[in-house]
Amino acid sequence: MKHVELTPVRTYKTEANAHKAAQDKFGNVQTRPELGPLRYIVKQHTDGRFFPLFVGINAMHYGVHNFFNIIA
Prior knowledge:
This protein has helices spanning 15-26, 58-61; strands at residues 39-44, 50-55, 69-71. The chain is of the alpha+beta class and 72 residues long.
């Protein structure tokens, strides 16, 4: 078993700002039926700042990895 520490690509001062960044970048993406919708959560980093964390392999197909962190 190995512990993995996430290093966020970009952090935001408030949780609301992290939600807004995710929505601004991918809120208007036309979802493909074979992939399904994009899913994300907002996590708090150890420095107290927030970052969106997208969930699932389908996020890679939408190109999210170019802007935010993904776990699959």
